[in-house]
Amino acid sequence: MRDEPDITELLREVAQGNRRSEPRLIELVYTELHRLAASYMRRERRDHTLQTSALVNEAYVRLLGGGPVPWENRAHFFATAAQTMRRILIDHARQRQSAKRSGAAERVTLDEVLLVVDEDPTRFLDLDTALTTLAELDERQARIVELRFFAGLNVAETAEILNISEKTVKRDWSMARAWLESQLAGGV
Prior knowledge:
Blueprint: H1 5-15, H2 22-42, H3 52-64, H4 74-100, H5 110-115, H6 121-137, H7 139-150, H8 155-162, H9 166-185
Helix pairs in contact: 1-2, 2-3, 2-4, 3-4, 4-6, 4-7, 6-7, 6-9, 7-9, 8-9
């Protein structure tokens, strides 16, 4: 993620109601939001009804359409964007699951979830439940999982957004994966 000093200032201006700053903000953040959405969508089934651009648009509306948000900086915005996209996909999976309602959910390991979230939305929902529990225990580890897995960021990008060292990201990523695997294997 390139350093765009204008983004933080534009986020503040838009949050303060300056609608003239919004087109420039969209121009600066759209490519990165699209990259985040594409990363999410690569993990979804091939016939997913939600398209990458629709995910970007829905996330953007939720991020900036609901009233002023006191954005700290661009890192805060993109971390929140990743979390918002995750929530959109969770909502979509829940809707799909409620429409299906066919039998017991199969429990899987985190590695299976990391490889593919296919036709069975329960895999994604199980991970979300475990990740929500992890956030209650260790918020930073949960954020690292969101940024690494869901947003597709590398160690350096994750460290930059969270303002921590790459070594800390690697350590917490390893611990979070192990914890999540044990939760998924034990039947969340």
